[in-house]
Amino acid sequence: MIELINESIFNDNKFRMSEPRLKKCFLCLESAPQTRRFPQSSKPEEQLEWLLRQNRDEEGFQLLLNRHRTVKEPRWCLRHFTSPTDSLPTDMRPDAIAPPPLLTVPLRTSRPANLIHQSQFSFTTGSQSVNDNSSMPPSPSFSVLDTMPQQPPWEPPTSPIRFDDDVLWNYADEVLPKRFKKEVSTKTTTTVVSQGSEYVCSQETSQGEEDDEEIEKEEDASGERGHYAIVEDACLLRLFKRCQECGAGVDQSLIKIKRCGSARIVRYDCLNPECNASVKWESQEKVGSERSRVYSANHSIPIAAFITGTPLPRLCDFAQVLELEIPSDRQMRKTIREIGSIATERVFDGWQEISRELAVNVAGDKGLQVSIDGQYDSPGHTSTNGKVTVIDCETKLALAGVAKSKNDPGIDGVSCRIESEGAMEAIIELVDRNINIRTIVGDQNGMVNKRLREDPKTASIERVFDFWHVQKPMRKEWWKIVKVNPELTPIYQQFFNHLYYVHNKYTERKDRPYALELVRSFLMHIQGKHKWEKNDEFQLVTQCEHGRLREKDNVETATLNAGTEEFEAVRKVLYAPRFKKAFLEAASLIDTSINESYHSLSLISPRYYKLKMQLAMLHHNSLMLDDLLERRKEIGNTVLSRKARVVIAIKRKRGAGTHTWRHDILEESIKVRIELSNTRTMRLLGIPEDDVFDVLNAWWEEKEAQWGLEMEWI
User: How many degrees, rounded to 5, is the angle at CA 263 between CA 262 and CA 264?
Assistant: First the structure.
């Protein structure tokens, strides 16, 4: 009897385990065996489309969106979907365009090819001439539907509805995002009528066919944008089977192909006695003038590699692996040195004028707030080159940049002087252009601050410190304390949260003394004292600013007792004179973080250090201008842990910038090549290359206009 009961219980549990698990619908609160997962927060477009289809008002839509985002994995049951295979819910909006039901007929057993008349297919043999258009039939398509005659789709006699794919799915193409169009496009059907038989060919293609279509679309799109193409030499010969002048056949053995960098030059002589032409075909147009004329790609390849940061050795390796002909390494470096550098400097000067004018207009009469920071090519005192950049804190545009070497005058081989010399040169350049600078924020570089105070042109500018550089020395001291006393780790985290809270709350300069005492009040807090009397250390702050502590946190025993070795170590850090001076002069609303981000764009190159700096500034300013014009859209985000503030931050990834300056440099480089040719001609003719004659002529005309006399040259 007991065995029968156990067996029945086992069978009952086994039956229950085989039942499908019910899941609760977040929208209607009903349980269902099959549900769909609501899109994740990283897919806002899908979330928006799901919720907009529920036809809620603005308040209800926002409430529904917030409810979904508070739950880990919200699910919807299949009651909210038209079909179990749909990935989008049913559209409940009154103005939604619902496609009519598609009428089909049973699929016949015969294959599609058997439904088409054999006379519709006609292929040419290998002996037929390619240029004989009179006997050439239309090219057959891979799709059977393309070979059918254009007839209206099949229509049942009892239904007045005619299907038109363009009408049915026009709404989906305009409203749905790109990722949802694939589902809609694979559900249309096309009816083929041939000789009285009806056949419905569904467009639900396989994954391989869809991939082929996507690849073909990508190739078509890239072909529209491309200016150059890669063609094999063997395929190139097929274009010259006939003479381009008369159309007669050409002996392939007489065709000569000459390689000139990336260009190809094809020569052949026509054997037709009536033509007898000597044809020369070039794969590229030439740019420049006279002796400096070169093929366009041979000119553009080294310039494009330089402005995009592509190392020439890697570019040569890439071409060697593909057996792709490009200009030699020596020729490319010569093009960069003689043409690319001049074009880059010209475009850089033009973009700098635009950036400075924009920053001045945004700042108005109150003046600019700029951040300044330097970067070296190597750490320590072994660096050879360095650069200093001045960036506007409002528009985040790089306004000035100076590249220095330790061999420059004034530095005398001492690497640490590079930043101070570069900072002074960059700031004075802006001041000489009548740009009003109100505040300069930088790190605690004593040499830079001393030079700014002593120079009369910059003495009146307010100087503040970046707060990250203010807390950095203190953090190192805390690490030493925590390394010896690991039990102080919670206090370490609490203190730096308290430090950043006070710094961001009291931003005015007049409130900084009060903020400093509030930071030091952390010593009273860790003792369990939250109110105290005024004394020599606390004249402005007499209590903590936090609310009433919870009972489980308000314990009687102190977190850290006064007089202990650990307490005195923490006290020494908070009362350090260096920290007091830096905290009182720290900036709250501006910092040098944008400079640190800009430094990641720089490409260290000892030979083209200044040019690389200019390219980095062009790249940075182009991105900032795209942000101001809202051209860059967010395409993703990543959660990061910020070590400096013991908090979680979100890094947002946006789309690529336009970088129109690259095309400007390419266009300017062609002008430089033409000017270079003219300069060589002037040198050969013995014409002076300087402008002394033009200056004297202008001075002579000015004096004639001033004196009102026509003077003669002596």
Answer: 130
Euclidean distance between the first and the last CA atom of the chain, given in angstroms as a whole number: 139
DSSP conformation letters of 311-374? -HHHHHHHHHHHT-----HHHHHHHIIIIIHHHHHHHHHHHHHHHHHHHHHHHGGG-EEEEEEE
The SS3 call for residue 418 is: helix
Q: In this model, does residue 677 exceed pLDDT 50?
A: yes
Q: Residue 4: what residue type?
A: L
CA distances to 679, 680, 700 from 688, rounded to whole Å, are 10, 11, 19
- Using alpha carbons, select from 91, 79, 84 the residue that is nearest to residue 50: 91
Judge contact between 215 and 207, C-beta under 8 A.
no
> pLDDT (tens digit, 9 = 90+) per residue, 545-592?
887 766 554 444 457 788 888 888 888 889 998 898 889 888 877 888
If one counts every other C-beta atom within 10 angstroms of the C-beta of residue 300, the result is 20
Q: Residue 642 — pLDDT band, cuts 50, 70, 90?
A: low
Cβ atoms within 10 Å, residue 52:
16
SS3 57: coil
397 φ/ψ angles, rounded to the nearest 5 degrees: -95, 140
Cα–Cα dist 604/614, whole Å: 12
CA-wise closest residue to 419 among 450, 464, 375: 375
Q: Give the helix/strand (H/E) hosting 566.
A: helix 565-574
Helix runs in 575-691, H state only: 577-584, 593-599, 609-628, 660-685
Strands 278-282 and 368-376: unpaired
Structure-derived torsion over alpha carbons of residues 627, 629, 631, 635, reported in degrees to the nearest 10 = 40
Q: Residues 7-25: pLDDT tens digits?
A: 444 455 444 444 556 777 8
The residue written with tokens 């528009």 in the block is 395
Neighbour count for residue 106 (Cβ, 10 Å): 8
Which 3 state secondary structure label does DSSP give 544? coil
| Sequence letter at residue 152 | P
Distance CA 341, CA 337 (A): 6
Query: Are the beta carbons of 401 and 391 closer than 8 angstroms?
Result: no
> Is pLDDT of 101 > 60?
no
Tokens read off for 426: 């960059």
pLDDT value for 482: 87
Global confidence as pTM: 0.63
Answer left, alpha or beta for residue 518, where phi above 0 means left and psi between -120 and 50 means alpha: alpha
- 345 by Cβ neighbours in 10 Å (0-12 / 13-18 / 19+) ranks as middle
Alpha-carbon distance of 221 to 242, in angstroms, equals 31
Which sign does the torsion angle of CA 143, 149, 155, 160 carry? positive
Phi, psi angle pair for 214, to nearest 5°: -65, -40
DSSP code, position 531: B
Other C-beta atoms lying within 10 Å of the C-beta of residue 593? 13
Is the per-residue pLDDT at 305 higher than 60? Answer: yes
Query: What contacts 327, CB < 8 A, 6 or more positions away?
Result: 261, 262, 298, 301, 302, 335
